[in-house]
Amino acid sequence: MSISVKVRGCIERSSWIRKMFEEGAQLRAIHGEENVFDFTLGNPSVEPPEAFHRELRRLAENPEPGMHRYMNNAGYETTRAAVAEVLSEKSPHPVGAEHVVMTCGAGGALNVALKTMLNPGEEVIILTPYFVEYKFYVDNHGGVTREVWTDRETFQPDIDAVEKAIGANTRAIIINSPNNPTGVVYPAATLQALGEMLERKQKELDRTIYVISDEPYARISYEEQVPGIFRHVKNVLIVTSHSKDLALPGERIGYLAANPMMNEVELFMEGAVFCNRVLGFVNAPALMQRLVTGLQRASVDIEEYRAKRDLLYDNLTAMGFAMVRPEGGFYLFPKSPLADDLEFVRLAQKHNILLVPGTGFGAPGFFRIAYCIDAAIIHRSLPAWERLAEEVGL
Amino acid sequence: MSISVKVRGCIERSSWIRKMFEEGAQLRAIHGEENVFDFTLGNPSVEPPEAFHRELRRLAENPEPGMHRYMNNAGYETTRAAVAEVLSEKSPHPVGAEHVVMTCGAGGALNVALKTMLNPGEEVIILTPYFVEYKFYVDNHGGVTREVWTDRETFQPDIDAVEKAIGANTRAIIINSPNNPTGVVYPAATLQALGEMLERKQKELDRTIYVISDEPYARISYEEQVPGIFRHVKNVLIVTSHSKDLALPGERIGYLAANPMMNEVELFMEGAVFCNRVLGFVNAPALMQRLVTGLQRASVDIEEYRAKRDLLYDNLTAMGFAMVRPEGGFYLFPKSPLADDLEFVRLAQKHNILLVPGTGFGAPGFFRIAYCIDAAIIHRSLPAWERLAEEVGL
Lengths: 394, 394
What we know:
Mean pLDDT of chain A: 95
Oligomer: homodimer
Largest sheet of chain A: 7 strands, mixed
Number of strands of chain A: 12
């Protein structure tokens, strides 16, 4: 065999995704691009804010000597200071540039965080339904994931269930709010309860247990500001990217930031800078670091997303689909009207509606809708949804 | 303990590098930036070619919708096709876009290649003196490095020694030509001998043994074109970046390309695309992919580097330093006049000359000079080199 046994296994197990993808491409070829309603990808259709384009033009027209060279593996001091300044507003203790490492997106930040903390066989708790990449990221660094279901009606973390899952081998818990795939936002009281439970468990077990707070959707929140987690949890890292708030997913720009009050925070940051280097990221892309420095308060227009959420939520619930009303992100995670979510997704495909089954998030019996697509497509899809609802007897 | 035991160990073992770095910063503070001669970093002082700046202005002024979104994890088809077209010119079999994955630099490409191929405990041969990151990259994916010395006079690969090191657990050998730290270029005959030996060993052991050809300096070659390795080795991957040829090290743009004749090449590329995704790179930075598409034949002016090589080589050998005359890259790797290269490097520091000891490349008794710095600094450093030579009795 010429490739890794584990990688070959992963490819084989994910062949159904490729098959779905190929069937989608076939549908487009048959019915035309505009008649296929693709709700599968978290790839924002919006463009970056005008401030981004302006800054890109300014840098292109006024190149500074050395602006494409290596810098410190942590990233530019000015960029990290700009990130820290904004984070400080939601932190009881001032965040400094030294608490921030610029990374190749949140995917890079998660891998850096996990490599920095994990010893072989240590456990990382993930909350079901979960973003499937978490399992690969933990495995990359010799860790083991432990899945804990959120409340099945609200998708809020079940703090008692998390507490029961914590043992002598637990190193971290990954949370994600606003959540992919459910769109729910965790309120301050929940984060506070999580922080208090973890304080107790860490004392009991005499070990550091980190919260890794994956926050790429933090600025896409409809009801109120997403609470600042540094206020509620001590040993916590924020990992995030500008993929959603500045609509730059292809540019791989994000960061990892540690709570200044974290245990041995200086050592952790030294480890993170080292891991950013030896994982082959080396540093976050230089030009993008410069570009986002002045855009730490900028964001795409979330009213567009809110309108799309309302359009789909209102129409689909009226048709009889059952789902939690999401307060952020750009996903809906309804219950599958058929017990088998894969069967339901296949049925939807016959109506030219492309969806991801809940099974892909460890949550059979649900399906995910990504509504970060053109509103026109959503409008055009409604009659197909009607027919689908009818076919499954809603 | 709150970080990984292994990472903590790495940080502690590399503390001498940080110490050297801090001492260098101190020297600058005392003597002034222009009086410290820093030969430690492979961070090109040249700027990207004008064609790069032109293309950046064009893209900034004419943004295309969706140009910052996710694309296929392998990268843009057009970018990969442009890379493949240039690679095909030095390949006996046409290279296609399907044989190329765009990556976050050569560091990204190496990690993707290693994760795709390695099972736990499998061995990767590296040639001493070696680029120290190779050891971390192999370890990231559960592999074990096996060091084989090159010829100690010429720094050319010792094919017999490599053959003796190959066993039932060998999965790959990493080569790097033009070489960091020695500057030597491997001639076609050597690559041919390596390829033939590997054909024999692979049959004998009934397993695939890859060559990973790390080629970021391929366009910085003074005597003749670096030979195309697809002509000489069957199971070979090229990993490279535009860090040196387009002077874009901070932008993290490079690629992995497989010989179209490689065993199960389609499966390998599928694995590589998967690994690019799950390692958290996701895709190479989008804007940089667009920028390098039209620059596959562009390069910084290598005559500048040649002049610097000649200036240093001629002057230092005249002073009595012994070294191989490098045919590429931007490094010199002289013998240390003192048996202890760390002691010699400390002595050089007293003359405000900053160097990296050979020990950092697994090769005690040598030291590395990176001459990718301003010619004016090199000129100003010559009297200091004279004094250093005198002090060590050359």
